[in-house]
Amino acid sequence: MDTPTESDRIRTLLRRIPAVEALLNRGPLQELAKRLGRQQVVNATRAVLENLREKVKEDSRAAITLESIEKKILAAAEAAAEPSLRPVINATGVILHTNLGRAPLPRAALAHLAKVATEYSNLEYELDLGERGKRDAHTARLFSQLLGAETALVVNNNAAAVFLALNTLAEGAEVIVSRGELVEIGGSFRIPDICAKSGAALREVGTTNRTRVSDYASAITERTRLLLRVHPSNFRITGFTERPALRELVDLARKHNLPLMEDLGSGCLVDLAPFGLREESVVSESLKAGVNVVTFSGDKLLGGPQAGILLGQRDLLSRIRKNPLFRALRVDKLTIAALEATISLYLREDYTAIPTQRMIRAPVEEIAERARQLGERLRALEGFSISVQDGESAAGGGSTPGQSLPTRLIAVTHRTRTAQELANALRKNRPPIIARIEEDQLVLDLRTVLDPEQEEEIFRAFQRLSANVA
Ligand SMILES: *Cc1c(COP(=O)(O)O)cnc(C)c1O
């Protein structure tokens, strides 16, 4: 129980906490308000004072000085004014890390995007004719050149692309899908759920591990509108398995005059097998094989902005385009600009300019040398033990299950701190550094560390850590 003197002391202290207005009239806070806006400073002041009141109630000996309060408000207001979405350094080695924003955009895409975004553009205007145009025209042209697609549509993401296609082509009727392909992609994209929402009835065929073309054939009725093939992006069934060749499905679809659609997931535009990603089907191969509509993401292996891309037969895509939902799922000019610039880099075969491509193609020897050099510098810091070890990077983003790229990892342990504590400290660095923990070691994979400046930033973060805990 409080003694009277204790609660008296608290009451006195509470009375000494200055009023918001009094603080706001002080020079430093007025300066701050000019920079950040009055409201942000008022909010920070209220929060700091509220905090102080709580503290005083718990501890009547808490020190209250105007200077210390002011300092706290300055720090709180600056922190609140920082953008919430900000760059981080990805040292996880997962190239398409959905939590870390998937594909980092090519610089060229950024330049084009900045120009288009800050000025007027011919987004929906035919300059030759002086008439209204279509926003898809800009990228359709490039996808035709690059992949031989008849035409292309771009929507918000691949989930939207699949949904829109199902809704347009199979609403009120049936779509046939193999039981081995009823996938769930992280973040609640499930083929059965998307199907249900699109109004198409899912007709499952085959079994989890084996589906034959005859399973599809015997499920076709007058209610069938579409055959759907889904890339099992993030899992792999091994052992006693069977899946029809694409060719067989194309033939079956043709025979019954039905469209065949393929959700490719990642959107691999060039063959990445030579670099170790052997199970990604290349978009142009599906088109060549005769698939009528393919869909894939813009920000997975393609390495561009978030988008869902539909390629294929003109009459089908034109029906999809006329769906009123197309308008609800359409993309902004920023996306079109970034996508156009990224595809242009593919046309020029300038793969080093596309970060995801560069990271996938980085030879292990190159990563090993970078790891050796940074490892050596970290080893010189007080308190850390460093070893450079063989390891594996991942494509991530729901691509290439069970496949990985050989890499060299910098493994770090500390004399007094656990790997988890090191990881927490790196996450609080500015910019935040995201690492992995493996077998009680903190590991850094430089494959996804974008440039020497980021490596330098990692070194500086460890320097500060070393100074703080030495
Ligand atoms: C990733 C993925 C999706 C979802 O794509 P988003 O662009 O994230 O909407 C759909 N299908 C497959 C097979 C995928 O791999």
Quick description:
This protein has helices at residues 4-16, 20-24, 27-36, 38-58, 66-81, 107-118, 137-147, 158-170, 191-198, 213-219, 246-255, 283-289, 314-322, 324-329, 333-347, 355-361, 364-379, 419-427, 452-469; strands at 89-90, 94-96, 125-126, 131-132, 151-155, 174-178, 184-185, 189-190, 201-205, 224-230, 260-265, 293-297, 308-312, 384-396, 405-414, 433-434, 436-438, 441-445. The chain has 470 residues and is an alpha/beta fold.
Relevant terms:
18 strands; globular; alpha/beta; 45% helix; Aspartate Aminotransferase, domain 2; seven-stranded mixed beta sheet; single chain
Structure description:
The protein is of the alpha/beta class and 470 residues long. It folds into three domains: 6-81, no CATH class; 89-96 and 359-469, Aspartate Aminotransferase, domain 1 (Alpha-Beta Complex); 107-353, Type I PLP-dependent aspartate aminotransferase-like (Major domain) (Aspartate Aminotransferase, domain 2, 3-Layer(aba) Sandwich). The chain is built from 19 helices and 18 strands. The strands form five sheets. A seven-stranded mixed β-sheet has the order 5-13-12-11-10-6-9, with helices on both faces. Strands 2-14-15-18-17 form a five-stranded mixed β-sheet. Helix 4 crosses helix 5 (66-81). The protein is globular, with a radius of gyration of 28 Å. The mean pLDDT is 93. The structure holds pyridoxal-5'-phosphate (PLP). Pyridoxal-5'-phosphate (PLP) is lined by residues 157-159, 162, 183, 185, 189, 230-231, 233, 263, 265-266, 297, 308, 398.
